[in-house]
Design a protein that fits this description.
It is built from four helices and five strands. With 99 residues, the chain is α+β, with helices and mostly antiparallel strands.
Length: 99
Amino acid sequence: MLEINDQTIFALSPDATLKNILNEKFFLLDKRHGQQYNLTEMEYALLTMIRDRVRFKEIRETICREYDAEESQVDSDVKEYMQSLFEHGLATTAESVGT
């Protein structure tokens, strides 16, 4: 199980690329497996923060503020989403790739 705390910094895999088309369509491209994932605006925002190596605490605070969401729900949802990204090799902790 992935250990996440407020100071955890994530990084996108070098094989993962974010695409934004006119702020209307959002994609995550997995170059290693040739997969393309359609993203919601919130997922794109989250992955952009991960790409920019923002700490988990700041990710949670930003999503709560921008989407008027409850902190406990955001905490749980982001951790679950991150676990899925890790399992698919699309993200890691920044410490794993060198900060």
